[in-house]
Amino acid sequence: MVKRKAVEGCTFVEGGVCAAKGFLANGVHCGLAHKALTAETPKEDHPVGTPGKNDLAMIFSKTPCAAAAMYTTNKVQAAPIQVTKRHLRNGRAQAVIVNSVNANACNADGITKAEKMCELAADALQLEPEDIIVASTGVIGQTLPLEPIAAAVPGLAEGLNEKGNTEAVKAIMTTDTQPKEIAVQFTAGGKVCTLGGMLKGSGMIHPNMATTLTFVTTDCAIEAALIQQALREVVALTLNHVSVDGDTSTNDMVCVLANGAAGNPLITKETADYEMFRDALYAVLMNLARRMARDGEGATKLIECFCEGADTDETAVIVAKSVITSSLFKAAVFGEDANCGRILCAIGYAPADLDVSQVDVSLGSEKGTIPVCRKGLVLDFSEEKAKEILGEEEILVHISLGNGGGNAVVWGCDLTYDYVRINGDYRS
Amino acid sequence: MVKRKAVEGCTFVEGGVCAAKGFLANGVHCGLAHKALTAETPKEDHPVGTPGKNDLAMIFSKTPCAAAAMYTTNKVQAAPIQVTKRHLRNGRAQAVIVNSVNANACNADGITKAEKMCELAADALQLEPEDIIVASTGVIGQTLPLEPIAAAVPGLAEGLNEKGNTEAVKAIMTTDTQPKEIAVQFTAGGKVCTLGGMLKGSGMIHPNMATTLTFVTTDCAIEAALIQQALREVVALTLNHVSVDGDTSTNDMVCVLANGAAGNPLITKETADYEMFRDALYAVLMNLARRMARDGEGATKLIECFCEGADTDETAVIVAKSVITSSLFKAAVFGEDANCGRILCAIGYAPADLDVSQVDVSLGSEKGTIPVCRKGLVLDFSEEKAKEILGEEEILVHISLGNGGGNAVVWGCDLTYDYVRINGDYRS
């Protein structure tokens, strides 16, 4: 497990999406297991739809919430994405229903099914369907069976509780090897506010789980428009700075529900309270992003790439992403090979304006830091020391472009045999 | 070995870069083996620098040639690229010297060494250094030892012969599992002309062999400016339509030498003869491109993706490349899994203007063709038939965007355990 990174003004607390006041959650196994799975299927071969694994979750706020969301930019948009977009037009929601195993994407009857999921949840919770956020993750292009969901929803709602985050987070996992949840407390308007989130990562297995779903709850009182603004700012620096394999899914969604139960004065402008809220959102999404990268399919290491000295922040992002998405470099990190030529190569083909003769690169981890390139030339460094550094779980690539004040940090992971194994599996 | 694809007006012949009249070649082992290799190193672990493997090649034309080249777009440019660019400014060359194992890139003394290689070749061949094209492929950022090259060049030149293409093509191989050479004959100005080429592929191992080098020779009489024009047109449709792992190297080069020995009237304009020359160049580079893709690191299959119905050819290229560079899709092809959801997903995130509700996709091979998506929705196809189709070595993905007359064909390969093994190896 990678370490949590602190953010000023935020204190880590337990509880994930149930950490904030007034939020309940639950997760159950409703039986959406992949059609080809049986009780005999070895667990390690079929982490998705493992018999008995939770596959349906619900999050509920006791009172209506201001809500905002961001969605995949893929032109192929799964049915739940289309339905949720419609439901959030009024900036209001009170519950989430989400399933794993089946993405409900590229199906002729997908919209109807996603709407039906909202109706089922609304009936059980005595809400309007328009107050429900719906999400799915799983195989693209397979008809979603509604029966198991319909049968499970009443019990799922009945069982909502203040520690239900642990069952809910399991229900959204696909190839994730670890549940991912983070919560923090901060102060706004003199009141202690809590903000927590859960995320399913870039597990994209069996065969199409190309989905990142993130759910954030908070008791901070804040207007929907400002949640949207903070989300846009923070996602740009966190979830959008992760790359596991460069594929953008049809189902990606991140949503925030704010019920105001903390009792702080409603945040309606870009005040210091707004900035604190945004920092808390950053603390949660940044740490979830790091965990997602570390838990990328088949990954054994988190790669954090910090690029500075760029003419603009945008250039720094482009260069850092070019490095962490290079298959050659990712495979070298897996092999714990301080392959700085591949880093220079990836910097060189990044579509950005830079002077390679000014580029410095160093590699670091808890074992120390070693410069490997200076002024665009490979240094004669100690392979032994480099190997020791790369033996750690968290690897830092530090790039200096020597060309200005722009900088960025992005996260990725190594490329391993297991990535190929997981994604080369047959569906049957 | 993938099949050769015919082009109208061109007849395949043997001989690679020695097929055209007046060209000689040779390849030897000069001893550039990687510093850490010994006679005890298992061959399969160290295909580069295997003791005794050819690592130095020469191509020579008995008479001066019109010449043109294209180079990597990476901002990090290896020393031989910089030297060759200078030498080809006058559109004239008569010989090529090329080594494998060491890329001579990102080294402080790289330019001096690349110039020295030209001087050594010029001395042995009684030419001017400016008439020499120099190229290197291998590890980035390691000092190139000149001594083995200096010692070998006289014998290399002495041994130049009309069947030397077979030794030369071995010398440029790195992780290539097969030598790649193609030659064709065509008629221009009533004379039979010959055009042949050799290529080293996207083998990028141990650890930085991210280099595609291509050398083409022809006895067709044609001006350098027109060679350059044809090269630009043809490379755009062939070498630039291949992706093995998305990394663009520091050393890529393709060059053409034309000595006019066929006796055809000099081609100086865009006549029918020019078009025939361009078609022959296309036949050679397209077939080499296919072989390169099939022989991508660790690959077991060639994926040919044909996209039609795009608003422009450019859109078709963008969409087809998005599909063949998707790690998820590439891994699925390795697993022979007809994972059409991943194809739709990759089409959806391609940065191009298209309507996903109009997209049809089919998969094909020598075993037949099967539609898998229609109007953006996944079809209920026979998994058995799909698996049979994907069991072949050459897989065709046919995408129709239903939006116009633009089309393109691009080539890639599957993503396999061996790709990770090869690129995760330590350098020591």
What report would you give on this structure?
- Two copies of one chain form a homodimer.
- Chain A is built from eleven helices and 16 strands.
- By secondary structure, chain A is an alpha+beta fold.
- Chain A has two domains: 11-294, L-amino peptidase D-ALA esterase/amidase (4-Layer Sandwich); 302-424, ArgJ beta chain, C-terminal domain (Ubiquitin-like (UB roll), Roll), CATH 3.10.20.340.
- In chain A, helix 2 (110-125) links the parallel strand 4 and strand 5 (132-136).
- In chain A, helix 1 crosses helix 2 (110-125), helix 2 (110-125) runs parallel beside helix 3 (147-158) and helix 5 (224-237) crosses helix 6 (272-294).
- Chain A is globular, with a radius of gyration of 22 Å.
- The interface between A and B is large, with 65 and 65 residues.
